Structures are given as C-alpha cells and as structure tokens.
Amino acid sequence: MSPRKAAALRHGDRTLREHLIATADRMMSERGAAGLTVRAIAREAGVADGVLYNHFDGKEELLALALRARVRRVERELGPPPEPGAGTVEANLRVHVEHGLALHRALLPALAGLTAQPDVLARFAASAGPGDAWRDRLHDYLRAERDLGRIAARTSAAAATSMIVGVCHEAVLSALLHASEPSPVPVDEVVATVLHGIASR
C-alpha cells in the first residue's frame, strides 16, 4: 500500500473502496453532486486521482454507489418497517409514510445535483438488491395486510403505494423545482386519506 493510501485509511478498518464511497457520500451531502469531480473526491479522500479508477469504472459508478450507501445507512437508522398483522394498519402506515419522507429528505442534497446526470441515477437504480427498495417493501406490506383481511379486499396495493410514494416525491420535487424547503406533509392526513378515501359518507 502506498503512503497516501495508508494515510487515507489510517483511521478505521474499512477498505479503500469503502473509504472512497464514504468520502463521495459525505461530499454529496455537504456540497451536492453538481460539479463534483474525480480530482475533488480523490483529494478529499487523500489518494491520487488515478486510484479511483482501480476500484470504479468512473465517477458515475462511484456516485451511484455512494448514493446507495446513503440509502442503506439512513434505513438502518430508521429501523425496520412494521410487520403485516402487527399493531394497527393506521399506525403502521404512519411509520411507512414517515420512513419514506425521511429517506427522501436524506437524499435531497445529492439528488439536487444528479438530475442532470441520468447515468448516475440509472446505475443507482440498478444497484438495488432484493429488498432494497422502500417502495417494494411498502407494496408488499399493503398486499399482505389485504391478504390478512385487515384492509378491504378491493384495495389496489399498487395504487395505494403510488399515492404514498407520490407524497414523498412531491416533497422532493417542490424543493428541486422551487429551490425552497418543502412544506411539512401532514402524515396523519395522508394516512387517513389512503385508508378512508375521499368519497362522501
């Protein structure tokens, strides 16, 4: 290992690849992804520019993996979602909505600079493993609750999932398009609307 590599890894026991991913993640969080260069990431990581190409096929792969690492870290901090059949559906949906909003808020600084980098976003999507996608877990939860008879048999799990995911996306798009902090989403109102609909009774 070269002196610069050794210096970069002096603290902790992670690999150089993990160190580079963590560095890119931190830089995207602090500065956004717009204008982030291989040279800047390498200097922040304390390695020579060419070292990145020993571990990644380019900046796009590194940024996609850094974004995936952020998602996994945030989800570990949030904890596992409720299991079907446990507690109440209303309380469980509240947790799912809060989970989705927190995840999207955590990704906002990076996404602000990635909208013009479709290759990074495509690689990020492709990097998802089984069970990685919050949307899929939400859909599976709703379908399981329907199978258990705790929500109406006529419920479209796909449509309900799209409604909840849309609330989370809207908060992010508002910030991206209007350059302002998204207004707090009334989680209880979202849950009540998903559960009870909008038809007059």
From TrEMBL:
Keywords: DNA-binding, Transcription, Transcription regulation. It comes from the Bacteria. Residues 37-56 bind DNA. The keyword ATP-binding does not apply. The keyword Membrane does not apply. SUPFAM superfamilies: Homeodomain-like (SSF46689), Tetracyclin repressor-like, C-terminal domain (SSF48498). This is AcrR family transcriptional regulator. It comes from Actinomadura algeriensis.
